[in-house]
Amino acid sequence: MAALNPLIIPSIDYTGNPGLGYYDLCDTEDKLITLCALMHEVVKKSDYVELLLGTEPFDRDDAVVVDEYYINQYQINSRTLSFTCRADYIDGSPPNAVFIYRVYSVSEGLFGDESVSDPRSVLVKRTIPGDPAPGAVGVNNALAKPTGLPPGIKMGAELTITVPAWENMAPGDVVTVLWGGKSFKVSNPPLLAEQVGSPQTIVVPAALIAQAGGNENLPVSYEIHDIVNNWSLHSQAAFLSVYSGPDVLNEPIVLDVPHESSLYSLDLDNHHIGDVELTVPSSVALIEGDILTLTWEGQNADGTLIATPVNTVTVEADGYFENFLVPYEYGRPSPAVRHGCFIG
Asked: What single string gives the DSSP state of each residue in 189-254?
């Protein structure tokens, strides 16, 4: 008995896919799986060959013949044995499918020696993560948007995003966040059995955020590939602003100014009787917990810069404006000093 050459499955071995998935097995009726093997030198014209299909743990007595034929001259010339197996013969859930083939020598119509290949175990999974609708292209509307995104962020820190649990969630699924498009991705390790059914968190590194750059309307979505590379399509996208430049804070505004006065200038004639209140409109560059400092800046007669911190506030999550009180003493009239203020 000779050991035959191993089976080749082109849809796996020539593509890099780890197994047979939905598009190998289910997307059309009467789907066929193609297998082949290089012909061993013991094989001769008119020998009889069978392809058998079983499951793990493999038992030849339980395997069924799914293809069979007598070897002809064309196959001898090509030195290749080719087989097909109907996709609906293959179970869509573990245990894995197992193929072998065997060749019987035939002489004067009588079967002689049998040669058998080694078993070829095949990972099989028919379901797709996220269960996209038939005919869906690009975006899977059954996948909810990622959550945990603020309206905007500044560069320099990582961001944790939550991906809701998805249909057909299974061990081995790999979820990948697409940050601003396909060029910037971050993936979690394959899902463990105990994680199935739970939302998944993914940390987007600060370096990747910086690499993608600033964007006032950056899309964030995700995708899932399973153990046989079935693809979920892209989820619905959530959006946020990413600010990268140094000049991202809004100008301070003077409160309680007369109607005809500018919001961005301090009229000392109208404010000479007391302190002045300024406010800083919210910016997506500000996040909860940031320390915001108002600095009063002046320049004396000889051009020397005078900068005095006035006050600091801590940014609150729900605060739209951050207010500062500027004591009158900072802005009282002086011919030797020109005044201004800035936020940092």
From this structure: PPPPGGGTTS-EEEEE-HHHHHHH--EEEEEEEEEEE-TT--B--BPPPEEEEEE-SS--SPPPEE
Question: Environment class of residue 167 by beta-carbon count within 10 Å: exposed (0-12), middle (13-18) or buried (19+)?
Answer: middle
Give the burial class of 89: count Cβ atoms within 10 A of its Cβ; 0-12 exposed, 13-18 middle, 19 or more buried.
Answer: exposed
How much of the chain is in helix, strand and coil states, percent to nearest 5? 10, 40, 50
- Over residues 307-321, the pLDDT tens digits come to 677 777 777 764 445
Nearest to 159 by CA among 180, 140, 173: 180
Which residues on adjacent β-strands are paired with residue 186?
177
Six-digit token string for 87: 């996709």
At a CB cut-off of 8 Å and minimum separation 6, what does 317 contact? 288
Q: Is the dihedral of CA 139, 140, 141, 143 positive or negative?
A: negative
d(CA 237, CA 234) in angstroms, rounded, equals 8
Q: Which residues in the chain come in under a pLDDT of 50? A: 259-261, 263, 271, 318-320, 333-344
What span, in angstroms and rounded, lies between the C-alpha atoms of 269 and 333? 9
Please state whether beta strands 253-254 and 64-70 pair in parallel, antiparallel, or not at all (unpaired): unpaired
